[in-house]
Amino acid sequence: MKKTDLLIIGGSAGGMLAASTARQSYGDIDITMIRETEKVLVPCGIPYIFGDLGSTDKDVVPDTGMNKAGVHIVINSAVEIDRENKIVKLKNGEDCSYKKLIIATGSYPVIPTFIPGYDLDNVFAIIKDKKYLDDVLKKMETLNDLVVIGGGFIGVEFSEQIRKSGKNVTIVEMTDTCVGTAFDKEFTEVLETSLKENGIDLRTGTKVTRIVGDDKVAGVEIEGGEVIPADMVIMSIGVKPNTELARKAGIELNVKGAIKVDQYTRTNDPNIFAVGDCAEKKCFFTGKDIPVLLASTAAMEAKIAGCNVFQLRLVRANKGTISSFATKVFGKTYAAAGLTEKSTKEEGFITLVGRCETPDHHPGSLAGTSMIKIKIVFSKCSGIILGAQVIGGDSACEIINVISIAIQKGMTATELNTFQVATHPLVSAAPTSYPINAAALNALSQNCKHLNEDLVI
C-alpha cells in the first residue's frame, strides 16, 4: 500500500494548483496525485484544438511543474474512498492511504438522452480526453456541415474556430440569446451580429427535437419540423459535477449534485477537501448555489485548499463566487464579472447603471486601436458594484479583472470614479476617459440629477 501525507484525486487546474500550493505552504510533505489520463489538456484551450492550435499536442499541460514540486503522479482511477481507514482504492486493485485528501474530480458533459438520435455516430460531446478529441479532430477533416447544440461560451468558441476552417456551422440555442447568463442583451447582440457576419447560422430561441440519421447523423430537426443538414453534431449544453465517487463515500452533496464545502473548501469530513467543478459554488451577492464551472474559479479554490489542508492558515477573503468570464470571438474580447442588470432586477436590487464607450488608445487614430464598451451595475443605495460587462480589444479582459477585485473588496461607484490609473497612449484609454472611472461617473451623475432640481446658484 502506498502511503502519502496529501492525496489529490484529479489532475487538471484545481488538482495541480492545490498540489503546488500545498508544497509551498507545508514544505517537505509527501504529495500524491491520482489522475486518469497520461496527458492533461488545458481545458479552456480545447475549442482551439479545432482551429488556431490544430492539434491536441499543442494543448497539453506539461508535467514539468508537478515534477519540480515533487508531486508523485499515479495514472489510475480512484474507485472508492474508505473514509474510516483513510484509504483510496484504485481501479488496478492497489490502495493509497492518506492523512488529508483533496477531491478535484472536475465535471463531465451533459448528454441529452432525451433527444432522439443523441447516440448516432458523429455526435460528440466535449470530453476532456486527448484520445477522444483526436478522434473528433480526425473525423472533422472530412466533414463539412456541423451543428453545435448550445450557445454558451464553449459552444460559441467551438463554432468560431470551426468556422475559421471554412466549414458550415450552425448554432442552435434554446434561450433567446447566446451567453445570456453572463451578458445583457445589448452585449449579446454585438456578439450575435459578429457570429452572423462571419457566416455562422445562428438559431436562438430554438429547441432541437431530434437528431436525424440511420447509423450516422444526417441532420438536426428543430421545432417546426425544419431539418438542418449536419454530418457532425457537437453537444455543448452544459456540464455536471463529477461527484459519484464522493457520493458513494457519504460526502454530502447539494441539490445540484456538487460537493458541499465551507469557506475553506472543507467537506463534511474534516480530512477531505473539494475544489473546482466538483465543488459547490455560492454566489458572492446572494449566497445561492450557482453552477459556475471555470478554471479560474477552480484555481482560487485550489489555493485556499492547498494552504489550509493541514492547518487553517488562509482566511478566505472572497466569501463567494463572483463569476468572472472572458472570451474572444472573431477578434473581439467579451468579458463580464458579477451579476447582469437583468439578474439584479430578478433578485430585487435597486440599481444604477453606468456606461462608457471610448478608444483603448489615445488618440484613437493610433494603429491597433479598438473601441471599449463598458457597463457597470451598482447598488443605488450603497453604491457597491454588482456586476460589469466589457467589449473591446485584449484590454477588456484586464479591465474586468480590475472590476472583479473591486467587487471582492466592496468598492463603491465613488471609489471607482476617483481611483488612480496608469495610462499611456499606446496601451490604454486616455486618463480623461478611462473606462472604469468614466462608467462610474456616468452612474453617479444620474444619482445627482434630482439634487440639481433644487440647486440655487
Brief digest:
With 457 residues, the chain is an alpha/beta fold. It has 11 helices and 26 strands. The protein has 3 domains: 2-108 and 240-308, FAD/NAD(P)-binding domain, CATH 3.50.50.60; 123-237, 3-Layer(bba) Sandwich (FAD/NAD(P)-binding domain); 331-452, 2-Layer Sandwich (Enolase-like, domain 1), CATH 3.30.390.30.
Q: Multimeric state of these chains?
A: single chain
> What count of helical segments does DSSP give?
11
The share of residues in extended strands comes to: 25-35%
Structural class: alpha/beta
Q: For the largest beta sheet, what order do the strands appear in spatially?
A: 6-3-2-10-21
- The CATH class of the largest domain turns out to be Alpha Beta
Under CATH, the topology of the largest domain can be stated as: FAD/NAD(P)-binding domain
**How many structural domains in the coordinates?**
3
* Gyration radius from CA atoms, angstroms: 24 Å
Biggest sheet descriptor: 5 strands, parallel
Give the beta-strand count. 26
Average pLDDT:
94
Cα-to-Cα separation, first versus last residue: 84 Å
Please bin the fraction of helical residues.
Answer: 25-40%
Unreliable spans are none
The CATH architecture of the largest domain can be named as 3-Layer(bba) Sandwich
Shape: globular
> What is the CATH H-level superfamily of the largest domain?
FAD/NAD(P)-binding domain
Keywords, please?
single chain, 457 residues, alpha/beta, FAD/NAD(P)-binding domain, Enolase-like, domain 1, 5-stranded parallel beta sheet, 26 strands, 26% helix, 26% strand, globular
